[in-house]
Amino acid sequence: MSQSLRAVQAFRSAIKRAVARSISDFEPKGAVSRQYGAYDDAAGVSKRALYVLDSNGKVFWSHLSPMAINPGADGILDALDRLGAR
After folding, report:
1. 17: how many CB neighbours lie within 10 A of its CB?
2. How far apart are the C-alpha atoms of 30 and 44, rounded to whole Å?
3. Residue 29 neighbours by CB under 8 Å, 6+ apart
4. d(CA 81, CA 86)
């Protein structure tokens, strides 16, 4: 099991109160990232982007992190708390 898969599983376990889905952006390369404004054309990779969507599929919260910095889950957890309070 890859480290990133273990991290995703740990994150999902930590936020059992919410529905957590991950999306993959493999083919066509960068298509989803481009739709969310999170694709680095110069580097040819998706940026470190986090999104929380509301029940209508609209972006409630987002964060773009520098590539060298792991953004962690605090922002997502706070956004989920605020979303649940609505």
Report:
1. 10
2. 8
3. 44
4. 9
Indicate whether 64 pLDDT > 70: yes
CATH architecture of the domain 22-84 equals 3-Layer(aba) Sandwich (3.40)
* Residue 42, SS3 per DSSP: coil
How far is C-alpha 11 from the geometric centre of its chain's CA atoms?
Answer: 11
Kindly report the pTM of this predicted structure. Answer: 0.67
**Confidence grade of residue 63 (pLDDT, cut at 50, 70, 90):** very high
Q: 54: burial class by Cβ within 10 Å (0-12, 13-18, 19+)? A: exposed
Query: What are the structural domain ranges in the chain?
Result: 22-84
Whether 70 and 76 have beta carbons less than 8 Å apart is answered as: no
Question: With left for phi above 0 and alpha for psi between -120 and 50, is residue 37 left, alpha or beta?
Answer: left
